[in-house]
Amino acid sequence: MTSKKLVNSVAGCADDALAGLVACDPNLQLLQGHRVALRSDLDSLKGRVALLSGGGSGHEPAHAGFIGKGMLTGVIAGAVFTSPAVGSILAAIRAVAQAGTVGTLLIVKNYTGDRLNFGLAREQAQAEGIPVEMVVIGDDSAFTVLKKAGRRGLCGTVLIHKVAGALAEAGVGLEEIAKQVSMVAKAMGTLGVSLSSCSVPGSKPTFELSADEVELGLGIHGEAGVRRIKMATADEIVRLMLDHMTNTSNASHVPVQPGSSVVMMVNNLGGLSFLELGIIADAVVRSLEGRGVQIARALVGTFMSALEMSGFSLTLLLADEPLLKLIDAETTAAAWPNVAKVSVTGRKRSRAAPSEPQEAPGSTTAGGLASKRMALVLEQVCATLLGLEEHLNALDRAAGDGDCGTTHSRAARAIQGWLKEGPPPASPAQLLSKLSVLLLEKMGGSSGALYGLFLTAAAQPLRAKTDLPAWSAAMDAGLEAMQKYGKAAPGDRTMLDSLWAAGQELQAWKSPGADLFQVLTEAVKSAEAAAEATKNMEAGAGRASYISSARLDQPDPGAVAAAAILRAILEVLQNQGV
């Protein structure tokens, strides 16, 4: 079965892709009658060397993404994974020559078709009197024994584009540029790994991998690699790659050793998520620095892809200060990243956390009857939530994730651990503030954020007073904050329904002579009734709002948990005879 691709036609996909890039970038122009993109300011290059590169399409953003001042003058694109036509290469050479350039350097990846077609175009251009040189880049470090064809050209070619572009922009001559980039290429190696193959538009995947396999040492055209390994962690795969790339018994190794300074390039082969790419970059940095290698520059992104291949390549280039100046030179190429012009190694990567605001004297006093009572309340709440874990998870499965009980249990265990460190603050405002921070850090999920909001806001009215009207105001403040940021309202089938029902009953605390237990008992009963009533509600907020109401025939787990917390508080206070 052929793969699905968002194209207009298989035959025209390469033309359409290049046309789209040029249409969105005023700095580029198409060469009429050819699949060639050139700088739109060619006339500004009079008296300088032009740089042309290219190859098959399907490697985007290579190669057209690297056209610009300080990089390539133009590129010639073939069909997907197919070398460009000789006629188009020759047309590009003629176009830059007629714009007044003093010579053209062809930067070619080491593949037979590219070597033949660019080489033939070069010979024809030279026969016309146009100065043309050609460098063939082979940076593949996969093969332990070199074959007659030599090392394949991979993502390291992009670094050659950058170095050559900086030299050309500085006015260096054609032969000297060719000589310098050839030397740079010898100090570079690239190795690829992938979790999947890719598929040319209109075709099936180029090879198959089982679920527990990874392809090591593959190229950029969907061809299989040199070895298949078992699926492993990012750290383990990176370690294996570096071992292979730097092993001196490997004929294509890159001579990196402790004390070496390198430019590191982590390249997405097309289908890897940004999350995975970040994990891999971290693994590469840690592994290289653990080997005593200095990372002078780090490039992470998509530079030379292989369609949708879910993998990455790692390029290492030995670098000294003169080379780093060329890497750091300015360029307008759209796909070149904004690389920091400082060494990665040796940089401080973290800073101290901000200090906590100083608390009022006596506000954190622990111990005493009030503190002990609060500890008992919290212990009962934690025991209640831990006992409800499976029940809450079962209720939550109707909404898809089934982790409400787990989330509340995580909060309970965090509170238990905190209580073991010492008695809680005697101040209600400080207690709620401390609990807010704890739940925001440890509970996780939207529940942690909502409880954190509620407790943070509820603490404010209790800073001045702690009488019954102040506790009622605290409930009001907490509910207001939950609605403001959570966007839920009473009747939306959320934890707010239970808390809102309780809050309405607690309004009675604002009346003179209100009874603590009578009002709190009615508040708990209302909360429990509201929680039960949520099974007849249509979800208006939270993840459950995306689920058909026909499937939601159980109470909302968050509402059940909130009611259970209030019940636990009431029982402890009654037992203590507050």
UniProtKB/TrEMBL annotation:
Q: Which cofactor does it need?
A: Mn(2+); Co(2+); Mg(2+)
Residues reported to bind substrate: 56-59, 109, 114
Domain (DhaK): give its ranges: 9-336
Active site feature: 221
Q: Which GO terms describe its molecular function?
A: ATP binding; FAD-AMP lyase (cyclizing) activity; glycerone kinase activity; metal ion binding; triokinase activity
Q: Which UniProt keywords apply?
A: ATP-binding, Cobalt, FAD, Flavoprotein, Kinase, Lyase, Magnesium, Manganese, Metal-binding, Multifunctional enzyme, Nucleotide-binding, Phosphoprotein, Transferase
Alphabetical list of SUPFAM superfamilies matching this protein: DAK1/DegV-like (SSF82549), DhaL-like (SSF101473)
Q: What is its EC number?
A: 2.7.1.28, 2.7.1.29, 4.6.1.15
- Indicate yes or no for the key word Cell inner membrane: no
Entry GO CC? cytosol
Q: What are the start and end residues of every segment in region (Disordered)?
A: 346-367
| GO biological process: one example | glycerol catabolic process
Question: Catalyses which reaction?
Answer: dihydroxyacetone + ATP = dihydroxyacetone phosphate + ADP + H(+); FAD = riboflavin cyclic-4',5'-phosphate + AMP + H(+); D-glyceraldehyde + ATP = D-glyceraldehyde 3-phosphate + ADP + H(+)
**Origin superkingdom:** Eukaryota
Any idea where the DhaL domain is? 372-571
Mind telling me which PROSITE patterns this protein's record contains? DHAK, DHAL
Q: Does the keyword ATP-binding apply?
A: yes
Outline the subunit composition.
Answer: Homodimer. Interacts with IFIH1 (via the CARD domains), the interaction is inhibited by viral infection.
By sequence similarity, the record places it as follows:
Belongs to the dihydroxyacetone kinase (DAK) family.
Q: What does this protein do?
A: Catalyzes both the phosphorylation of dihydroxyacetone and of glyceraldehyde, and the splitting of ribonucleoside diphosphate-X compounds among which FAD is the best substrate. Represses IFIH1-mediated cellular antiviral response.
Would you tell me the protein name for this molecule? Answer: Triokinase/FMN cyclase
